[in-house]
Amino acid sequence: MFSVRVFQSSSSCQIGPMTLLLGIVIGLFLFVVLRVALHHLLLFKLRRDVAALNAGNHRPLLAGYAQDAVLVFTEGDHRWSGTYVGRDAIGEFLEGFMRCGIQGEITELWTGGWPWALTILVGFDDHADGPHGERLYENHTVLVCRTRWGKIVRQEDFYVDTVRMIAFDRKLTELGI
Fold first, then answer.
1. pTM for this one?
2. Which domain holds residue 90?
3. What's the pLDDT tens digit per position in 145-155?
């Protein structure tokens, strides 16, 4: 019926159907456990990196990008619009966000694909306050990231409301930032 013969030197053994089924169940269980662990590790790492960015240090987040990574930011009539190619350009982009006082928080994370070629979707809320504590800007974004061997190789940002971003850019210009 369901038996597998494994030949070893001069003897052979049979694996019965229950043993085979148990092996498959254990394998699936380990796959699910490791997948959940990967998800939680990614969420922990990205939240830690965003906390560092909020504190004025973009280097931990930048280290997660491949040297030739591409970041495509929402097109529009604002200073951040465009495609940033390479880690140096992405670093300048992140520095610009810090200069404007933008703070962010990862709200959700979804992953798909194999660990060496993940697609990551990140729900991200960001905001900025003015010099007197008034809220100048807030928005919600979905970041779509493609990775290769643990490094982001492509990221596209999709904002819920791009008009808010344009108004914020104009407000920053009025404030001389």
1. 0.83
2. 12-174
3. 999 999 999 99
